[in-house]
Amino acid sequence: MSRIITLTTDFGTQDHYVSVMKAVMLGITPTSRLIDISHEIPPQDIMAGAWVIRNAAFQFPKGSVHLVVVDPGVGTDRHPIALKINDQYFVGPDNGIFSLITNQFKYKAYKLNKPEYWLKDRSRTFHGRDIFSPVAAHLSEGVDIKQLGEPIKDLVSYHWAVPIGDKDGVQGWVIHIDRFGNLITNISESLLEETAGRRKVRVYVGNTIIDHMVNTFGDVEPGEPAAFIGSSGMLEVGINKGNAAQMLGVDKGAQISLVLQK
Is the dihedral of CA 181, 184, 189, 195 positive or negative? Predict the structure, then answer.
């Protein structure tokens, strides 16, 4: 095991939630390294959490444990689960939070039903502390994932709408807005290359038209919009030294169109 445990939550840092989860894990595995991926997932936004963990998890060493808690259904009949994917481990609720990973990779999943690996005293509303944190810590300590629960095949899965490409261009949607206001779309670099090839494209988003794509937002003047392939391999629209979501008046789910130029 790498002895690394990452944390991704929608808890923020105002309250005690994150620190007490860390306290629980350190009580079980004091030599593990705890690394915060993000605690600023919008509250209850499962797909935002799915996007963040999809882009971060596989950069960590093999054997890392990823604790992901965006859990609006805590205390209901949704299952707590643990996954093994490509020598990485994931712990969290079965509510679609791992969709963007399980849709891409083969996995082994286990329903967590062995209370001996949980805290003895448990609440109905804080499974991040009482179930997920101790399970993540035990995994980091080398406990076999098979000991933590029984195999489960069917997981809750969400899907973003699939972009549409044809001879005229590509139509997609904004699926994520990052802290800088960059609009991240569901249009991949590979789809763009397959559809457009070497032809130039014009980008339509909100009431804005971007005449051509660039390598980075720094290729345009300050305050100007730019369309480029971002670090996630997806088409993004940003503003050089500005917030695209605010300045262009675009929200998550907005349509974005790429029209091929003759």
Answer: negative
Is 201 inside any structural domain?
Answer: yes
Q: How many other β-carbons are positioned within 10 Å of the β-carbon of residue 106?
A: 8
Are 141 and 170 found together in one domain? no
Nearest to 28 by CA among 127, 118, 125, 150: 118
Q: What's the CATH code of the domain at 239?
A: 2.40.30.90
Q: Is residue 256 part of a domain?
A: yes
| Domain closes at, from 94, 123, 152 | 152
Q: Is the pLDDT of residue 2 over 90?
A: no
**pLDDT for 243-256, tens place per residue?**
999 999 999 999 99
How many whole angstroms separate alpha carbon 67 and alpha carbon 65?
6
Residues 173/163, Cβ–Cβ less than 8 Å:
yes
Dihedral angle of Cα 222, 226, 232, 234, to the nearest 10 degrees: 170
| Tokens at 182, concatenated | 């960059």
Say yes or no to pLDDT of 235 above 90: yes
The answer to whether residues 218 and 183 belong to one domain is: yes
